[in-house]
């Protein structure tokens, strides 16, 4: 892709810009899109632009960002333009604090996991249909935390492959709990075909964006064509988790969403099993938090 032409065509010449994500890492599938980060302090949501055969996501960012989750996504940013050198200074600070940022993000993810486990319990007690969705999110937050403590950048297309390479240690041993809740063993071509259609429908509902479905479907096709069924299942669940969390405060206003989420999340309806899963994931999250408190 001609980056300079893309910047000019999209009127981005006035801001510090870098390329992030899979395209500048060793984790790079044919299905991976370009992630262009524009430090324009804009409150705008991410936008997707088609550039020939490539899908490009334009992320709007700030040089004064403080959230560890976002800063870690910039750590290996490939700078395209930075006349003031302010972006270079930001990246230097991120590199200096990288270990602390990973731990901070992991701790935040563990807290979110515990929150989701409690939402699961509350939902079961109140006969709320979204209980399983909360528990799927809890397991994925636990996975995020463990990946972060292995200093791995989050990228849903590649996270499962990193997990397969984990070394054995007291933190990584908890990954099996989260993976059991997720249900990767259920991955079949027929199920994934149903899941991707519902995932795209849910994504369009949340994001009101008619191009993100192309990215989801492209990744789905890549995984299925390459017999990476478990990776596909993981990816779709992670996309649904990100979208689910975006609308968590308005779920009760949209009870009909459960019909699409039953398929998109491949959810479990056994309340006793869900309570057991919530207890197991909570126990793992508390155990890792205890390890962090002693370091």
Integer average pLDDT: 92
Distance between termini?
44 Å
Overall SS class: alpha+beta
How many β-strand stretches? 5
Query: How many domains is the backbone divided into?
Result: 2
Give the strand content.
5-15%
Strand neighbour order, sheet with most strands: 3-4-2-1-5
Which stretches are low in confidence, meaning pLDDT under 50 for 5 or more residues running?
none
Helix and strand pattern? HEEEEHEHHHHHHHHHH
Query: Main beta sheet: strand number and arrangement?
Result: 5 strands, mixed
Q: How many helices?
A: 12
Helical amount: 55-70%
What overall geometry do the principal axes of the alpha carbons give?
A: globular
Overview of the structural elements:
The protein is of the alpha+beta class. The mean pLDDT is 92. It has 12 helices and 5 strands. Helix 4 (98-125) runs antiparallel to helix 5, helix 8 runs antiparallel to helix 9 and helix 8 (189-207) packs parallel to helix 10 (229-246). The protein folds into 2 domains: 3-96, Beta Polymerase, domain 2 (2-Layer Sandwich), CATH 3.30.460.10; 98-293, no CATH class.
Produce a short descriptive summary:
By secondary structure, the protein is α+β, with helices and mostly antiparallel strands. The chain has helices spanning 3-9, 68-73, 86-96, 98-125, 131-149, 159-164, 175-182, 189-207, 212-225, 229-246, 257-264, 271-293, and strands spanning 17-20, 34-38, 47-51, 54-60, 78-81. 57% of the residues lie in helices and 8% in strands.
């Amino acid at each position: 892709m001609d980056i300079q032409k893309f910047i000019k065509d999209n009127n981005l010449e006035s801001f510090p810009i870098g390329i992030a994500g899979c395209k500048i890492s060793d984790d790079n599938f044919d299905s991976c899109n370009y992630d262009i980060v524009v430090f324009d302090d804009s409150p705008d949501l991410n936008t997707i632009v088609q550039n020939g055969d490539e899908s490009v996501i334009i992320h709007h960012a700030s040089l004064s960002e403080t959230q560890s989750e976002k800063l870690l996504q910039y750590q290996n940013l490939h700078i395209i333009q930075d006349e003031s050198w302010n972006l270079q200074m930001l990246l230097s600070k991120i590199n200096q604090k990288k270990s602390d940022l990973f731990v901070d993000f992991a701790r935040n993810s563990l807290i979110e996991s515990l929150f989701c486990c409690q939402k699961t319990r509350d939902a079961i007690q109140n006969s709320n249909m979204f209980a399983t969705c909360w528990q799927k999110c809890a397991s994925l937050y636990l996975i995020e935390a463990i990946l972060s403590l292995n200093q791995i950048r989050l990228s849903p297309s590649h996270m499962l492959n990193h997990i397969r390479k984990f070394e054995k240690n007291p933190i990584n041993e908890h990954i099996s709990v989260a993976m059991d809740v997720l249900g990767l063993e259920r991955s079949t071509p027929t199920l994934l075909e149903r899941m991707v259609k519902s995932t795209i429908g849910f994504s369009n509902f949340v994001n009101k964006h008619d191009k993100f479905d192309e990215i989801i479907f492209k990744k789905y096709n890549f995984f299925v064509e390459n017999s990476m069924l478990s990776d596909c299942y993981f990816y779709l669940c992670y996309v649904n988790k990100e979208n689910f969390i975006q609308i968590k405060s308005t779920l009760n206003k949209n009870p009909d969403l459960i019909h699409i989420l039953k398929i998109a999340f491949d959810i479990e309806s056994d309340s006793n099993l869900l309570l057991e899963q919530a207890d197991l994931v909570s126990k793992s999250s508390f155990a890792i938090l205890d390890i962090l408190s002693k370091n």
